[in-house]
Amino acid sequence: MSSTLLLAFALMLVLEGLMPFIAPAAWRETFRRLIQFSDGQIRFVGLASMIVGLAMLLVFS
Hints:
By secondary structure, the chain is mainly α. It has a domain at about 25-60. The protein is built from three helices and no strands. The chain has helices spanning about 1-20, 25-35, 40-60. α1 packs across α2.
């Protein structure tokens, strides 16, 4: 179980690092736009990504 969690964490880090590596200007602009969102909008984005992730876990496992 712990090795699976570590592999999942490692994959997350690889995927999170792709955008700043490939397109740093676009990544910077994305964060410039994000800091202008209200707390509610940021929470909605977080909730939506958690729901999509949970759905993917259910479908692919």
